[in-house]
Amino acid sequence: MILIKNNFKLMLRCKPIALILIVMIMVTGMLSAVFHDLMTDHLDFDGFELGYSFTQGCIFEPIKPVLENIGKENGIKLIQLTDGSAQHAVQSGAADVFAEFNNDGCTVYSADDHQIEASVVEMIVSSILSGASDVEIRDYLTENKIDVQPMPDSQMYYTIAYTVYFVWCAMIVLGVVTSSENKNKIGARFRTTPVSSLSIYLSRFVPSAVVITGLIFLGAVICTALFDIAWTQVALTALILLLGCVASAALATVLFSLIRNVILCVVLGYCLLMFWGFFGGSFCPYMWAPWADTIRDYSPIYYMTRSLVELNTNGSSQFTLPAVIILCGMSVVCIPLGMAAVRFGKEN
Amino acid sequence: MEQTTILKLSGLSKKFDSRTAVDHISLEIREGEIFGLLGPNGAGKSTTLNMVCSLLKPTSGSIEVFGMDAAKSMKQIKQRIGYIPQDLAIHGNLKAWENVELFTSLYGIRGRELRDAVDESLEFVGLLDRRGSYAKTFSGGMKRRLNIACAIGHKPDLMIFDEPTVGIDPQSRNFILEKIKEANAKGATVIYTSHYMEEVEAICTRIAIMDNGRIIATGTREELARLVTDEKPEKVTLEEVFLTLTGKKLRDYAGGEG
User: Fold this and answer.
1) Closest to B141 in 3D by CA, of B195, B88, B83
2) CA-based torsion, A131, A132, A136, A142: positive or negative
3) Cβ B93–A14 below 8 Å, yes or no?
4) Is the pLDDT of residue A43 over 70?
5) Interface with A, mutate which of B105, B113, B147 (most A CBs under 10 A)
């Protein structure tokens, strides 16, 4: 217990440890802002012209006033065309997008350079029709309902991505104790005492798990306040982060018990973290070559990030169970391995 | 009355690859002695002490401490040994009392007994008034004293000092030597290695001289002096004895184990 307490003190007295917290918040803030601006650039539009037509006696005609209202509120200029084909309207530039309503449904036409506007029209029509009071219309449109996945905003995504990324920094925390032990040859001194391998193992594992958990949760709280994050699944989010911190500390203890050289250990750990983070969505969550999808399956960061993002946007995620199993599995493997490594180091 | 044997080395050897660091040494250290282990660099002193403290496994031979076989009862033996290493084994970012508490607790001492042991150890080395200061703020001599305090909290029966006065001022050195004599007077048996002949001469009751992994002479200062002169051995210094027995050739070489 005293060994644990003193290693805990050594970690907390190392001021550079606070950099983990500061960097975590800075990186989250920076990336959130950068990607928020990029998203704004791509999503803003100056409005467009939507041509539409109803065939005679079309059952969808009652939605016309609603469509006009939405168009007015969103800068979409509506033009009802009564003659000519949709193809002609789009090709002649009379409308950027054309929505043709008949009793079979609604068909949206657009040129290649107005695909986004066409998608917007599809979403609008779908949402109007799904809320229509007319039973006949609503029944018909259930077949054409567009399933829209809620998207996280950049603040939410990067707060989760970098909270998860820094969970794996337990090796930096443990490095403080290991470097002091190496510098002062404390390990050799321990071997002249009757202290057990288990005590030595716990003195490394427990404080690093507690300190990294404290830093991560403090960081998450600060990010929540600064970036106005609305966590919808607090308990599950906390559980996954906690399991991540335990697995991270267990992994760090194995690394430092097998490799005495702190520099080598941190470099190896950093490379592993970069690999996991790169393919796991910490840096750029899009534009991958297909082979990267295979590699990301080996990154616990991928499962954690995806699970937490989906949990806090959709309310559920099929990645939560795999994330929990992977993190528990890592701890189950790393804890006995670390204990064996400490015993080996103590006896040799 | 015959004194109890505290440490008995029998045919002890240690090889590092093809090099023999300790070569079939046999030695007995009795209760209440301050036993000096002298030798040039690479003679095998530290290797021998490291084997006694179980930091190294012997290649052959046996070690008996307090009548127990070290190969079988090392945990019980460690409980009664206080090892003061040549390198300072203290955490700079812990306070003096925290360092002593840390190492004393490794011997299973807890609670009130632990708190008392910490204060007694710090008082013994004259650092009680600096108990709340960080070790990194201490001078070289103070760090050496703290290093000793960390090894005596559990009141060991056998204290092993591996060059405890390297790089410190004469006042600190004198203080440490006095404290070693005081600990010995309280009942602890002491093994002491040093390059400083006058220190060994001043405090050791018996001395062994090692060279090339072997013990080439053992005895009191007078007995060793008689090995080099028949006339007035009291006028021969230990350094003269040492240089006569081990030669004047430089012994430092790369990769050497003490």
Assistant:
1) B88
2) negative
3) yes
4) no
5) B105
Mean pLDDT of A242-246: 94
| CATH number for the domain formed by residue range(s) A45-144 | 3.40.190.10
The reported pLDDT for the residue numbered B133 is: 92
Token pair for residue A38?
């990029």
- Region of B188 (left: φ > 0; alpha: ψ -120 to 50; beta: rest) is beta
CA pair distance A309, A158, nearest whole angstrom: 9
Say which residue, A273 or B151, is predicted with more confidence: B151
Comparing B31 with A1, the larger pLDDT belongs to B31
The whole-angstrom distance between B239's CA and the closest CA on chain A is: 31
Cα separation, B54 vs A241, whole angstroms: 42
CA–CA gap between residue A167 and residue A160 (Å, rounded): 11
Contact status of A4 with chain B (Cβ, < 8 Å):
no
Q: Angle at CA A154, nearest 5°, toward A150 and A156?
A: 70
pLDDT of residue B190: 92
Q: How far apart, in Å, are the Cα atoms of A67 and each of A52, A114, A209, B32, B111?
A: 10, 19, 56, 103, 78
What percent of chain B clears pLDDT 90, i.e. is strictly above it?
A: 25
Say which of A6, A185, A191 has its CB closest to residue B102. Answer: A6
pLDDT at B66 > cutoff 80? yes
| CA–CA dist B112, B3 (Å, integer) | 34
**Strand locations in chain A (E):** 48-54, 76-80, 97-102, 105-110
- Phi then psi for residue A71, to 5 deg, are -60, -45
Least confident among A86-90, A166-170, A212-216, B46-50 = A86-90
**Res. A310: pLDDT tops 90:** no
Closest CA to A181 of A156, A153, A200: A200
Confidence of residue A29 (pLDDT cuts 50, 70, 90): confident
Locate the chain B residue with the closest alpha carbon to A5. B102
State how far residue A10 is from chain B, nearest Cα, in angstroms.
6
Q: Are B34 and B184 in contact (CB under 8 A)?
A: yes
CB A99, CB A52: distance < 8 Å: yes
Cα A266 to Cα A252: distance, rounded to the nearest angstrom: 9
Which tokens is B201 given?
């001469």
The strand ranges marked E within B168-235 are: 189-193, 206-211, 214-219
When scoring A193, A344, A347 by the number of chain B Cβ atoms within 10 A, the one with the most, hence best to mutate, is A193
How confident is the model at residue A169, as a pLDDT?
Answer: 85
A13 vs B: CB within 8 A: yes
